[in-house]
Design brief:
59 residues; alpha/beta; two-stranded parallel sheet; 3 helices; 4 strands; EC 4.2.1.17; isomerase activity
C-alpha cells in the first residue's frame, strides 16, 4: 500500500524525516521544508539525510 505525504505550511525536523519515508510527496507552493538539525551541526535521527539524498537523486 503506497504512503502519500502532503506538505502544507512548515514541515521541520521529525515531521520532514517521516515524510521522506513516504512513497509519494506533494508540497504546497508555500511549503517550507527543513531538517534543522543539520543546520545546527547535529546528525538528524531517523536517517533524514540518507533519505533526503535518495529522494533528491530520484527527482
Amino acid at each position: 500500500m503506497p504512503v502519500i505525504a502532503v506538505f502544507e505550511g512548515v514541515c521541520f525536523g521529525g515531521g520532514m524525516q517521516i515524510a521522506l519515508g513516504a512513497d509519494f510527496r506533494i508540497a504546497a507552493a508555500d511549503a517550507k521544508l527543513s531538517i534543522m538539525e543539520a543546520k545546527w551541526g547535529l546528525v538528524p535521527d531517523m536517517a533524514g539525510l540518507v533519505s533526503l539524498r535518495e529522494v533528491v537523486s530520484k527527482d
